[in-house]
Design goal:
The chain is an alpha+beta fold. Helix content is about 25%, strand content about 20%. The protein binds FE2/S2 (inorganic) cluster.
Length: about 130
């Protein structure tokens, strides 16, 4: 089942700068790195871009979700290949999970401490 990884393109580049020297936001850099990290797994990891996920204090932010599974909002990533590799690896494990729960031993080190919110699957009954 494909996983949608939505990257906020308007997240700032760093704590004091919205853009890098080339005029790119941190979110744009992370999106590009994630597209590269997804590589030939693009049928499973569908990377998309979206302006502002309302997690601005936790930039760079990404939303990981799939039909019928709990979704996850994660952030506080530095824009670049290391974060992208960790997000892609976790999302691939998420793709293989039945309900969106990825066993903690499978978590890449670089994703630990970055989750912000757990989002119930659409249509899940409230309890
Ligand atoms: S600017 Fe990225 S979450 Fe708002």
């Amino acid at each position: 089942m494909p996983v949608d990884v939505t990257v906020c393109t308007t997240c700032k580049y760093g704590p004091t700068a919205a853009f890098d020297a080339a005029g790119r936001t941190g979110g744009e850099i992370l999106a590009e790195a994630l597209e590269a990290a997804a590589g030939n797994r693009r049928a499973v990891l569908r990377i998309s871009r979206h302006e502002c996920l309302w997690a601005c204090r936790n930039s760079c932010a990404v939303l990981i979700q799939a039909a019928g599974k709990t979704g996850y909002l994660a952030g506080r990533f530095e824009a670049g290949a290391a974060a992208a590799a960790a997000i892609a690896a976790w999302a691939e494990a998420y793709a293989q999970s039945a309900d969106g729960a990825v066993p903690y031993p499978m978590w890449p080190e670089a994703i630990k401490g970055h989750f912000i919110a757990r989002i119930p699957a659409s249509g899940e009954a409230a309890s």
